[in-house]
């Protein structure tokens, strides 16, 4: 579900993504976070997401922290493409 959310948010911001992937943090030794990779044809950015934020999104609860983090991450991706 987070992948669809990121694609939709990126489209609202005018960013065309090529891939969004989520890695369970417990595989990396962090049980409360996930690693999110977002890429375009030209750039890749990664960010950590709290498990609770992802769960709130999945249950339909508002999560302004997640939206803010995703917008900042997408802006980093967009700026990386330009520069």
Textual characterization of the structure:
Strand 1 and strand 2 (33-39) form a beta hairpin. The chain is built from three helices and three strands. The chain has one domain. A three-stranded antiparallel sheet has the order 1-2-3. The chain starts with a helix and ends with a helix. Helix content is 47%, strand content 24%. The protein has helices at residues 2-12, 51-59, 64-82; strands spanning 19-24, 33-39, 44-50.
Q: Any idea how many domains?
A: 1
**Topology pattern, helix = H, strand = E:** HEEEHH
Provide the gyration radius in Å.
12 Å
Terminal Cα span: 30 Å
Shape assignment: globular
Unreliable segments (pLDDT under 50, ≥5 consecutive)? none
Look at the structure and give the mean pLDDT: 92
Helix content: 40-55%
Give the DSSP E fraction (strand runs of 2 or more residues).
Answer: 15-25%
- Spatial order of strands in the largest sheet: 1-2-3
The largest sheet, given as strand count, sense and whether it forms a barrel, is:
3 strands, antiparallel
Helical run tally: 3
The SS-based structural class is: alpha+beta
**Tally of DSSP β-strands:** 3
